[in-house]
Structures
1.
Amino acid sequence: MNKINLEQKLGLFSDYWSPKIVGELNGQLIKLAKFKGEFVRHKHDNEDEFFYVIKGVLKIELPDKEVTINEGEFIIIPRGIEHKPVAEEEVHVLLFEPETTLNTGDTTNELTKEIPERI
Amino acid sequence: MNKINLEQKLGLFSDYWSPKIVGELNGQLIKLAKFKGEFVRHKHDNEDEFFYVIKGVLKIELPDKEVTINEGEFIIIPRGIEHKPVAEEEVHVLLFEPETTLNTGDTTNELTKEIPERI
């Protein structure tokens, strides 16, 4: 039972769109990720998704609007809602999600990470 | 589906040891709290607990050691482990826990918040 320092963990990887597991509790995973560029539009049929911006600016394109999430802000995307994350510059995010969540949701392509790495 | 700004939400309350609900997903709650002073030693029989320090320094007394959690750090306390949070100065924390989690766990006293407020 040791504390986790987000900055230290963020220094351990540099690949984009590849969430790393940094904690686990109650069937949920705590993940850190770096985003840059445009991700694939997707949805999760059975999981709500949480994005907290640690550093940078994250835009999320939703069916009816675009939301800009700044440092110190989070958004919850309910299950079933299509969304497309876009990071014009590098963004660092904290994710809380069930163990079952696949990063690309109902879309499978070269960005899909079937088994996220633990760091 | 709107973004949540932690600083804005933290500005809405000033009471200590009284977590406020700011988000909900997958049967879990996102809460914000301010701590100052010593909390009651307690444990949660069925829930793991997550403390992320947004501002300040949080000490947690565990059965065999004390952990100091600084800004940008988190700790997960596994279910069944006794812990006593201590904040020498005001601390702002983000909590991520199941809807069933009671702040004082297996201990009930004047600090117990049966129904956390939503802000």
Note: Chain A touches chain B through 33 residues (CB under 8 Å).
2.
Amino acid sequence: MEAKLEYVLTRGVAEIIIREELYRLLESGRPLRLKMGFDPSRPDIHLGHVVGMRKLRQFQELGHQVVVIVGDWTAQIGDPSGTSQTRPMLSAEEVRDNAETYMQQFFKVVDREKTELRWQSEWFGDFRLADVIRLTSKFTVAQLMAREDFSRRNAGGKPIALTELLYPLLQAYDSVVVRADVEFGGIDQKFNCLMGRDLQQMMGQPPQQVFLMPLLVGTDGQQKMSKSLDNYIAVEEPPENMYGKIMSMPDRLMMDYFELLTDVPDLELARIRADLENQTGNPMAVKKLLAQDIVKQFHGEPAAVEAASHFEKVVQRGEAPEEMPVISVSELHQRISRDPAARREAGILGIVDVLVATDLVKSRSEAKRLIRQGAVEMNGRRVVSEMSSLDRVPAGDGTTLRVGKQRWLRIVG
Amino acid sequence: MEAKLEYVLTRGVAEIIIREELYRLLESGRPLRLKMGFDPSRPDIHLGHVVGMRKLRQFQELGHQVVVIVGDWTAQIGDPSGTSQTRPMLSAEEVRDNAETYMQQFFKVVDREKTELRWQSEWFGDFRLADVIRLTSKFTVAQLMAREDFSRRNAGGKPIALTELLYPLLQAYDSVVVRADVEFGGIDQKFNCLMGRDLQQMMGQPPQQVFLMPLLVGTDGQQKMSKSLDNYIAVEEPPENMYGKIMSMPDRLMMDYFELLTDVPDLELARIRADLENQTGNPMAVKKLLAQDIVKQFHGEPAAVEAASHFEKVVQRGEAPEEMPVISVSELHQRISRDPAARREAGILGIVDVLVATDLVKSRSEAKRLIRQGAVEMNGRRVVSEMSSLDRVPAGDGTTLRVGKQRWLRIVG
């Protein structure tokens, strides 16, 4: 148990405030209340979120209680990390739907039995001006403006809506209401979590400890994983996509992903790291190990094995996959007939029209460029002219189209 | 009428925003809604407030409507001009009592028939977090921190409670609710009044005009008149005190008081000013004119005449006033017997004990100092020793005590 505790407090941790106090709380034997917030305007969980969820799960295995806060009020203000616009209020129904979507994914990692779900609207729905005055009177403008992103924007002359200063206060108040013992968040949540500590003390509660995790870099290898940057891997992603995205990301991210997203032991990781640094290890093999581990967590062992073999076959050896999207010739004719830019020769299915109509490419110009680059194949043979067409589609397997390495389509009679 | 309008728009005005627009509104012939706020935690009206009230009265005489806002919500936050503490909420009863006290005094100057009384609690009592978010989203931190006192305190490292930034927003919202055409205030209210203009426009109303008046310097000749600085003349002050306080203030304040607190015509004021500058006028005579004018406004002509004669007799000629406080010898003995520091000689009323027991002085040491300075008289004769005593109090007029120029007391058998 001690070894497990040690692991939980050191693996994938950016900062703990205050480590000694958290240690004392854990030793007390009392089940702790572990708070984590979620923004219901962003219900899709990606691997960046999973880092924290895995940590919660580890604490649950030590007997502690997770309290998820549905931020239906802070979502209105928006996480003020750059923009200054408030968002339109989500309807109660949207929030409920999003929370349901979120929790379904959340419970792929976190233990449902040891999770309490709370809604900010339980306490903010009836929060009045007098409450706002009481809350805001406890903090100074300077205290809030000390937050790194506020001071940076302020120094740069960028507007900060007064509302944004309320955000950390509402989040802090959540900690008071749920009597959090520990708040979990990414390292970028440090300021907000510390406000919770302060407010709890002002309101006569013991201050929560703050457990901060590193931010997972997205598949672009540049920025924090996020949906808006399109560098994310969603938990709901099909096994082949998940596997493929991990395989295609820069090698230097691998060790962080291993540390933050797998249970591969530290000693083993040290060995892998050393092998890679000495160039005695094969980065591709290591990355496959990582991809298989992660896919397995969300889709199970068989799906992970299949994703690996799909990757090897289709991507590495360039073979046609077992399964691919299928479209009928008649459907194809119908779609093309609705395209005003399509060729108008009776019975002719022009290759450019087909690529556009089947969404294999985004535009006619992309289709032409890919044909020129030799990246389009029909039945295993390169298409050399944009004036090519599909004349007859044979019965049985029909005609197979491939664009680039991974976009496949079968056209049947 | 044109001359009157001209007078109203120029006499005792610090700034009008926007003068041309206000002029156009006045010309439209529609009765305008003239907003002025009041802080119900400070129900006592002094001459500093009268400056604005007189201006409202002048507008009423042109047919316009005054709207007084009882700031029962902003009073909780406190006018953030230096301090950063929020005050305890006044009880509804206290607010009602204070508003009644205030309005009684207010209507000594302003026409009750053309005044509408509104309470912030009408709209803020049910103001919720969602409303606060909507309101705060319209303004940036930088906009608010541009307010002179905020930026000064911020630069000086003095704390500004987040709540204080809400103050101008609430005041602005009042303007929206009452659909103010013009807001009146001292020049130190400029920022807050301009916020009202902005908010009205954001909420689809025509922006109010802002009518700002100079701040009246208090009787110390140094700072803005205010109760807390004890440099004020209250509207409720008895005629003699009011007269005496005006007479004792520095001469250089006279012309401002004439301009802001009397209807003495501008031409006449120019003449008085010139006489004073050329030293052909008598400052004392001019000040008496001022004192009599102001006392007359609040207490009527006979009281003003009496106050003037009291001043001349008691202060200028040092004669005993018509009336003075009276105490009996037996009451005096009783009070002294409760004073542990008093002389303990049977039947003797020591002068120091008497001065202390009758509150003519604040302490034994003040009594001794004044006696040494020759500032204490008994029946018109200077008391030379602190060991003096009142032996026998004659029947009839008794014994008269005088301390300094104006403190009188009669002791009767």
Note: The CA atoms of residues 101 and 358 of chain A lie 30 Å apart.
